[in-house]
Amino acid sequence: IVEGVLQSSYTPSGSPSIYPSKMSINTTAGFSIVSYTGNSTADATVPHGLSSTPEIVIVKNREASESWAVWHEDLSSAKRLDLNLAAGEFSTSNYVKGVTSDVFQFSSSGAVINNGDDFIAYCWHSVEGFSKIGSYVGNGDNIGPFVYTGFLPAFVMLKALTGSQNWRIHDSARNGYNASVEGLFPNTNGTEDTEDVMDMISNGFKLRS
After folding, report:
1. pTM given for the model
2. Please, which residues bridge with residue 199 across strands?
3. Residue-wise pLDDT tens digits, 170-208
């Protein structure tokens, strides 16, 4: 399935318990968008349609004032991040429980699978030379760690797993390269800041603060 309403002949792999209403899939780019309806069933599964296991999944309840639930492969067990909050990873009963090469699975209802509510999920995995999803450990120094991507990044989004720190977005369009100064915060409505955070270089990015 490339885009649009799923056809009756489509059989998702992994025997999912929820059949999406629509999917838009680009296996080359490692990105899919999945629309589904919740059933409040713990351990329910939904197909992501990708050719490799996603490394990050972002889910939003479209019919309720619930947070954007973020699953990342490097989060601790039974924890999640919220895209609209500065909080670090936290324990909750409503989260993406796990991801396989075929499906993603939920723990319970609410923000991710409430019965009868419509949801949208965005799923990504890394693609060599195109995208990179991962994690790094900070060192608290102005000469921060180097993060290898294997290509010159144009867009970088960061979030601290511990402590209340804003999500940060840096890109090459607003300020060009080096230093990528202006940060945007998707969890707030604030304007961009001017903290000198990183250099984007030919094979990754170097943290400055």
Report:
1. 0.92
2. 206
3. 998 987 777 777 899 999 999 999 888 899 999 999 998
